[in-house]
Amino acid sequence: MTTTNISVDPLLTQMKEVEERVAKVLELAKSLGADGAEVAMSRQQGLSVGTRLGEVENVEFTNDGALGITVYQQGRKGSASTADLSENALTQAVEAAVNIAKYTSVDDCSGLADKQLLAMQPLDLDLYHPKELTTEQAIDIAKECEQNALDFDKRITNSDGASLDCFAGFKVYGNSHGQLVGYPSSRHSLSCVVIATDNEDMQRDYAYDVNRDFSLLEQGESIGLRAAKEVLSRLNAQKISTQKVPVLFRADIANTIWGHFIAAISGGNLYRKSSFLLDALGDTVFPEFLSIQERPHIAKALASSAFDSEGVLTKDRDIITDGALQTYLLTSYSARKLGLTTTGHAGGIHNWLVESKTAEQRNFDAMLKTLGTGLLVTELMGQGVNVVNGDYSRGAAGFWVENGEIAYPVSEITIAGNLAQMFKGIVAVGNDIDTHGSIRTGSILIDEMQVAGQ
Angle at CA 282, nearest 5°, toward 278 and 285? Predict the structure, then answer.
């Protein structure tokens, strides 16, 4: 008779142990008089290496996590956390949270999410793809990535290094409604930053990739070459005169525009009346050809989640349909403040898909042709955005475009406008989709913005 050794993933074993601890903490909170409690714990472990000019800069091993508990007593709220999961430490954390709750003000909007909205049996979204690498293997990958960039052109004279990060972890959430859920996940990334010089001009740029599944990560050679080409394209940047022109935000920069939109429709800003999109539900805030869908359950996607940080079930949602705002982004607390129902956005958004419903599908080159003559933005600096009134002003760099062709790089400029006008002034959205974050968008062309240069 033969026996088969079945390997057990230590991380998944840890997750089961944490689930047991969370259940005990919830029981303890109830025994100490809490009429509601929620417990969340995340743990992450992995390897991060960095190289610079062929030498190892850093090697970091991560293995950390913390448990947080929040208790509710007759409208009062208390929270505590601990990285120590011993029985004594957990007891002290619960007692601290209960004690804190005695001294906080009553807030009728605080409390657990409504039970009927919770994800009691969440979907498996295939987010866990751990990769075992030795330190030497990780260093070799980072070195190869950087060396490919350095070897590409003699004008690439220096480097800020290449970095490889491989992390795996889990999240566990439970509350006194009887919910106890968790899931493991992984995240791998590889990046390269290089410096190029030409006479007295010096520029710095980078390239990177990130994926849940290491086998789908872009090869180091390719990332190194992209970093080299990016930095070389920025050499000998020119200044341009102050003027109003069309502005094209490259896809990897365009997500910042949607980030400001997210802030404007988030419950926290709305109930504080700190948004230029107050009472905009149902209003047309974008051109009619533009729609945004949220799809939380895409397998392996970076922003996929079966439930939010309050345990609320995530759902497919239409955020923008034919230019009109369909929903706000609400947590349980902000929803109660507004007299509405949570939308499952505690902790952020989940895979936004920005779509242009025009007959013509434009790739990046076609977007340049549509731009004609104007500014292509590839980098933004500063945080000059006021969500209260929509005023927008940020430092920028990129390229001047003439007759649909990139003419030369530009730097030391500022672009300005108002978000409400910018949203309605979107002329086209490209199909050059960037998938590196929670917002999947192509490049965005805005009809006119103020560009301050010389």
Answer: 70
- Would you state the structure tokens that stand for residue 151, as one six-digit string? 């070897």
Distance CA 451, CA 66 (A): 46
The domain limits of the chain are: 10-233, 243-452
Blockwise average pLDDT, block size 10, the chain, 454 residues: 56 94 95 94 95 95 93 95 92 96 94 97 96 95 96 95 96 97 97 95 95 96 96 94 97 96 97 96 96 97 97 98 98 97 97 88 93 96 93 96 96 96 96 95 97 88
CB-based contacts of 278: which residues, under 8 Å, 6+ apart?
270
DSSP symbol at 265 = T
Please give the model's pTM, rounded to 2 decimal places.
0.93
> Distances from the Cα of 70 to the Cαs of 65, 383, 436, in angstroms?
17, 33, 33
Rounded Cα gap, residues 438 and 303, in angstroms? 5
Side-chain-side CA neighbours of 429 within 13 Å: the count stands at 28
Record: fold of 10-233: PmbA/TldD fold (3.30.2290)
